Amino acid sequence: MSLIYHTHVYFLPQQAGFAAALHATLAAQLPAGCWLGQLIHREVGPHTRPMFEIDFAASLLPAVETLLQQHRGPLPVLLHPQQADELAAHTSAARWLGEALPLKLDTLGG
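Below the sequence we write its predicted structure tokens.
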């Protein structure tokens, strides 16, 4: 099985319109094989802002990252691999595009 990546695109309530426009752009431009989640207008799990998620095979990472860099504007993005150690996935194995946000790491175990 190939490595799967999760990408979380965060937004503040006042950025919801921009986030929805970005979501629509990504829906039209993401490569085949990507899963694009709906906008979640509240904090969920370890995430400290509203967000939406994109899941994809590691082979698509360059294409997805390029699209996000081109279109994300001021929105922070967390990219991380799916792995058994959720804490490591969201910290040492993760990287940020834009501002690095705090996460509720205690919800991830270790």
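Strands lie at 4-10, 35-36, 51-57, 77-81, 95-97.
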